[in-house]
């Protein structure tokens, strides 16, 4: 069932901080789940795609690729899921490095889900920035 996605504007700011669009793509092939989290950066203008290959809940393979915005627009399956700040993206990237080592030998489904939640910004009350 399609859930209407919120409309994001490119110049969105969160409490005065610049935000970047975050995209996700999840598909399954041959018993593996390929989950991709992508962020669009302005400097340099590119898309950074974090690719996780998960088999039976265990993170089997993890890598990062960078593509141009034009190349990214041609990729299928990506949906914008949120916007995030540079500092939240840094937390995500650092957590991802820790999880990739920790999850080579055990099931880490919840850790990966929790890591993605880091990217979502909590709307603050006006004046509480």
Strand content: 35-45%
Number of strands: 7
Percent in helix: 10-25%
Principal-axis shape equals globular
Q: Which class of secondary structure composition applies to the elements?
A: alpha+beta
Task: Give the topology string: H per helix, E per strand.
Answer: EEEEEEHEHH
Mean pLDDT over the residues: 80
Quaternary structure annotation: single chain
Number of separate domains: 1
Which regions are unreliable across 5 or more consecutive residues at pLDDT < 50? 1-11
Strand order of the largest sheet: 6-5-4-3-7
End-to-end Cα distance, whole Å, is 35 Å
Rg measurement, Å: 15 Å
Major β-sheet annotation: 5 strands, antiparallel
Specify the number of helices.
Answer: 3
Explain what the structure shows.
The chain is an alpha+beta fold and 129 residues long. It has one domain. It contains 3 helices and 7 strands; from the N terminus they run ββββββαβαα. It has helices at 69-73, 86-102, 109-117; strands at 13-14, 17-18, 20-29, 32-41, 46-55, 58-67, 79-84. A 5-stranded antiparallel beta sheet has the order 6-5-4-3-7. The protein is globular and about 40 Å long. The model is unreliable at 1-11 (pLDDT under 50).
Summarize the structure.
It holds the Pfam family CHRDL_1_2_C. With 129 residues, the chain is α+β, with helices and mostly antiparallel strands.
């Amino acid at each position: 069932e399609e859930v209407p996605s919120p409309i994001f504007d490119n110049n969105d700011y969160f409490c005065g901080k610049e935000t970047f669009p975050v995209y996700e793509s999840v598909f399954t092939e041959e018993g593996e789940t390929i989950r991709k989290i992508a962020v669009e950066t302005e400097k340099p203008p590119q898309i950074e795609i974090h690719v996780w290959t998960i088999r039976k809940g265990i993170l089997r393979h993890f890598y990062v690729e960078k593509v141009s915005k034009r190349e990214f627009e041609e990729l299928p399956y990506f949906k914008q899921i949120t916007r995030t700040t540079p500092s939240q993206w840094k937390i995500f990237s650092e957590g991802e490095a820790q999880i990739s080592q920790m999850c080579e030998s055990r099931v880490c489904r919840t850790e990966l889900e929790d890591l993605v939640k880091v990217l979502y910004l909590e709307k603050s009350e006006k004046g509480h920035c």
